[in-house]
Sequence to fold (288 residues):
Amino acid sequence: MRFGMNGCFLPDDMRDLTPALCRRVRELGFSGIFTRFKANDPHTTPRATADDVKHILAGEGVRLFQCTGYWQNLVTGDEYVRHEAVRTLQAALRLAGWLGARAIDTGPGSHSPTGPWFPHPANWTADSRRQLVRSLRECAAAAEDAGVLLCMEGHQLVVLESAAVMKDVLDQVGSPWVRCDYDSANWVTRETVYDSERALHHDFDTLGGHIVSCHAKDVWLEDKLALHLQDGCPGQGHVDFRTLFRRMEALSPEYPIIAEGNTTEELPAVSALFHQVAREIGAPVLGE
Fold:
């Protein structure tokens, strides 16, 4: 298996990525990164800038496991907005290809006016699923042209509300370039939070080969009178990382497992946890 990290000390502007930052990634026990680079517009960032980043990463032996899809709304019924979202995702794929990225990660967007991961009743409708399938079909060729996997991430609050819905959408899109990035916390419910082993097996059995990467994040119930599931740093909640890592390793040792939900200060403990679990299940860590 391969371990990656995201966020934390990684810069928002790709022009601020340095060899020293890459060496810090390696020293912490990670062989790759997931970058958001939200300061770099995918429509206007020149290839020369991307080439510089690609050269730095290659020189330090750090893989670019994922870039961002820039959080565009692929489910809106406003055709102009949806068309522009597709254009942005296509541009993100092209930029990711220039950077030498394995994949991009994106959610489907939301009908909520306050954020792409926030709830809205229209998110869980057949119309939203149809719009998402349409948008992804329009992006599949761009992913293939760039040689970059278009990885969708799900969450209970958006249209990709479960593993079953994710599978249905990806089956309808029907492209080997449009796949699933599995997040270990986003589909956990009150009913499964204390039995994450069962939940993980259910999701992996449902999605099978659609999964090509993983965001390893933890989740727990907070002591509040209104139901609140909090996601966060691996090792602080109820996710069964042994089961998660076994299922990812069984799909492919090459598929990256990317730490998420932690701070920079928590990275050493997260890396230690990941490597300990890998040893316990007998899975070699690649790229060290």
Remarks:
- The chain has one domain: 2-281.
- Residues 79-99 form the longest helix (21 residues).
- Helices lie at 19-27, 47-60, 79-99, 126-146, 163-173, 196-207, 241-251, 267-281.
- Strands lie at 2-6, 32-34, 63-68, 103-106, 149-152, 178-183, 211-216, 218-221, 229-232, 256-259.
